[in-house]
Amino acid sequence: MNNLYVISGVTGMTGNELVRQILGGNKGSVVGFDNFFCSSIDTVEDCIDDPRFEFFQYDINNAAQMAEIEYKIQKMKKDFDKVFYINCAAVVHTEYFYHVNTTFDTNLLGMRTFLNQAIAVGADAYINCSTSEVYSMQSFKEGGVKESDFLLMSDAEHSQRTSYATGKLLTEFFMKDAVDNGQIKGASLRFANVYSKNERFAKHILPHIVNSLINDGKVVLLENSKINKRTFLHNIDSCDAVLHLLEHEDALDGSVYNVATEEEISILDLVALVADKLGIKDPEITFEGYRESDPVRRVLSTEKLRTRTGWAPKITLSEGIDMIVDFRKNS
Ligand SMILES: NC(=O)c1ccc[n+]([C@@H]2O[C@H](COP(=O)([O-])OP(=O)(O)OC[C@H]3O[C@@H](n4cnc5c(N)ncnc54)[C@H](O)[C@@H]3O)[C@@H](O)[C@H]2O)c1
Fold it and tell me: Quick one: which of 72, 151, 164, 274 is 20 to 30 A from 63 by CA?
């Protein structure tokens, strides 16, 4: 197959790994853009000279720049078997979750603009990156929460933080509406705690722990971390899930898919595991601050994705942490 992948937010954690897997797997070419809100060109430096990859420093909220991308894809599409749109551009990291105006513009209006562009160019499918945060206060049950479970969401009465999840939830409705109306095929993916070996802006818990232990030999955690447990998904596996879905047309029915591992670990055990790999004995842990509306456990069932596409995560948490530690030692 020689497909054309149009990727927003392409230098982010998901986008840059998608480029690597698409080019490395000889799946086709990539047109990608990013405004460097939260990333840099460094993340794709190993792909930037590949003639199959074209990059633009563009903003998904800039109408003229999006019109240029649309014009470009209209001209290019005849040379490819299929055209796939993957929307990775988003205001993501925890500190921005509280900023409802910023997340609204990019995560909702940007998502819809990009979806409308995919429809206008006659793209074969659209992948909408949603989030496991939509499970909010009911993020755990034995066997994992399912896509079909009803939600119990924290709201503005509890924490502005849930505005991020609320916005992402609405994007799932846009996705479903477009598929139900026969405009395009596609699906929404609820990713849970994705990490990579080289997260540049280390706001997530895993890079925070690694960086703190390497730099100071100790770590400061939220009070929530005394009891919280999480699962962690390597970006190699999250991107593999995106590509698996695109290869299974029947699965692109507008619905939602959980993408996660079921390897749950407490945050305190995570600190111990990372410390052990760094050769640090009994690291000092202090607790500061408390995050409202943060569920104690979040475990997702991935049965739907596994059954419909054959996807399964391959990288264990231990292997993923080894990759982070190796990367840090060699950079
Ligand atoms: N990382 C996770 O744990 C996680 C979990 C759940 C869902 N997601 C979702 O997956 C998708 C990809 O996330 P990620 O982990 O790659 O995040 P990321 O922050 O690494 O990547 C997002 C990219 O979007 C870019 N961007 C932001 N605003 C933009 C704009 N206006 N125009 C163009 N580019 C813009 C950023 O610069 C960044 O490179 C997002 O939709 C996110 O909400 C991620």
Answer: 164
pLDDT for res 201: 62
Q: Which atom of ligand 1 is nearest to the CA of 43?
A: 39
Compute the distance from residue 123 Cα to the ligand 1 centre, in Å: 22
Closest CA to 60 of 2, 12, 131: 12
- Partners of 253 in the β-ladder: 186
Mutate to test the pocket of ligand 1, among 86, 191, 200, 261 (most ligand atoms within 8 A of CB): 191
Judging by DSSP bridges, how do beta strands 83-87 and 53-56 pair with one another? unpaired
Tens digits of residue pLDDT in 42-56: 999 999 999 999 999
Q: Cα–Cα distance between 229 and 186 in angstroms, integer?
A: 31
Among 245, 232, 260, CA closest to 324: 232
Spans of all domains in the chain: 3-196+234-262+298-314
Whole-number Å distance, alpha carbon 260 to ligand 1 midpoint, is: 17
Q: What is the CATH number of domain 3-196+234-262+298-314?
A: 3.40.50.720
Q: Does residue 59's CB lie within 6 angstroms of at least one atom of ligand 1?
A: yes
| pLDDT (average), residues 123-146 | 97
| pLDDT tens column, 191-238 | 999 999 988 666 789 989 999 999 999 999 999 999 999 999 999 999
> Is the CB of 103 within 6 Å of ligand 1?
no
Taking the centre of ligand 1 as the mean of its atom positions, its distance from the CA of residue 170, in whole angstroms, is 17
pTM over 0.90: yes
CA dist 305 and 262 (Å) reads 13
- pLDDT, residue 200, reads 65
Residue 9 Cβ contacting ligand 1 at under 6 Å? yes
Q: How far is the CA of 109 from the centre of ligand 1 (A)?
A: 14
Contact 27, 19 (CB under 8 A): no
What is the predicted pLDDT for the residue at 90?
Answer: 96
Distance 282 CA to ligand 1 centre (A): 35
